[in-house]
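Standup notes
- DV: blocked on the single-chain target, sequence here:
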Amino acid sequence: MTASVDPTAEQRARFVVMYDTPSDVQAFERHYAEVHVPLAKQYPGLRRYTRSDNPAAVMGEPCYMVVMLDWDDMPALEAALGSEIGRRTAEDAAANLARFATFRAMILQLDEV
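- DV (later): unblocked, structure below
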């Protein structure tokens, strides 16, 4: 039996970032809290910003932190990432957070099934 997606159901969009353990945890946390989070919380249309510290790995390698940012839909997420604040947040991650930790990100469309 295959589940079908209700075309009238709400579709949310999520941006997920997974950080590996920083080389300097204190410097990473300080920059993350004082600079990066305030920038990211300015994303247009952002509905929710959540963080999970030391998530338990069930399969694969563990990571230090997982951050999830939610929008109403994919166009809203794409607009936020392409905005001026989106560019500034991405530049901050590449220039500053990457000095302390490797990270990876993905975009998810969340469909009710």
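- Follow-up: The chain has three helices and four strands.
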